């Protein structure tokens, strides 16, 4: 029984995600569905890439991850990628390069005949691909390798000895701001015992372990489970209280 996850910007109010699942069940009755999120901001491929990149490692190999975001930019293409033993089924809109920092070398474009009579949901094409994978067909049996997929690059943190300048790349449901500063960067470039983490309107002088290491309403920073520096307010929303925004707000770590 194939395990299929869904990440989308389709929301939960409308019938769209149900229609896709129904199409899949019409082709492949024994499927186990898990929704990662249907609340990705509309058309936001960066947010979708962050979500799937951090969620997929928790699933068993062989899982099929459907990333249905900004389908209008798919340009009639459905892409299937195999990486780390996982399948990713999505559109040619740059998500793959943002999720994996490059286009994975095993990226296939699904053959056009599987997409005939599809709507903008691509429900039949998605269902047919999952059916073929469930029957243990190889991607090369119904798709062809491509090197022409759209590719984007995420904003990278800049580093020098004693200095890291990064930015906010994601705001979660609690208003916590995740940056593009990794623990590896911090350990390599901030070797001094004393340092400061500077945001728009807060300065932190230590790396905490949890939100509750500081008093309620105070700013806190720590490396989250994915290894990225997170800026938060204990029992508050850093997004609002510190004025943090994705791709706009900078975070500076500097040795004192």
Task: Supply database-style keywords.
256 residues; alpha+beta; Rossmann fold; Elongation Factor Tu (Ef-tu), domain 3; 2 domains; eight-stranded antiparallel beta sheet; seven-stranded mixed beta sheet; 20% helix
Describe the structure.
- With 256 residues, this protein is α+β, with helices and mostly antiparallel strands.
- It folds into two domains: 3-145, S-adenosyl-l-methionine hydroxide adenosyltransferase, N-terminal (Rossmann fold); 158-255, Bacterial fluorinating enzyme like (Elongation Factor Tu (Ef-tu), domain 3).
- The protein has six helices and 15 strands.
- It has helices spanning 16-27, 45-55, 95-100, 123-134, 183-189, 238-241, and strands at 3-8, 32-37, 64-68, 78-83, 86-91, 107-110, 143-145, 158-160, 163-171, 177-182, 195-198, 203-204, 219-223, 228-233, 250-255.
- The strands form two sheets. Strands 8, 9, 10, 11, 12, 13, 14 and 15 form an eight-stranded antiparallel sheet that branches. Strands 2-1-3-5-4-6-7 form a seven-stranded mixed sheet, sandwiched between helices.
- A hairpin with a 2-residue loop joins β4 (78-83) and β5 (86-91).
- α1 runs parallel beside α4.
- It is elongated, with a radius of gyration of 20 Å.
- It starts with a strand and ends with a strand.
- The model has no long low-confidence stretch (mean pLDDT 94).
CATH class of the largest domain: Alpha Beta
Cα(first) to Cα(last) distance is 56 Å
Count of DSSP strands: 15
Strand content: 25-35%
Global shape? elongated
Oligomer: single chain
Mind describing the biggest β-sheet? 8 strands, antiparallel
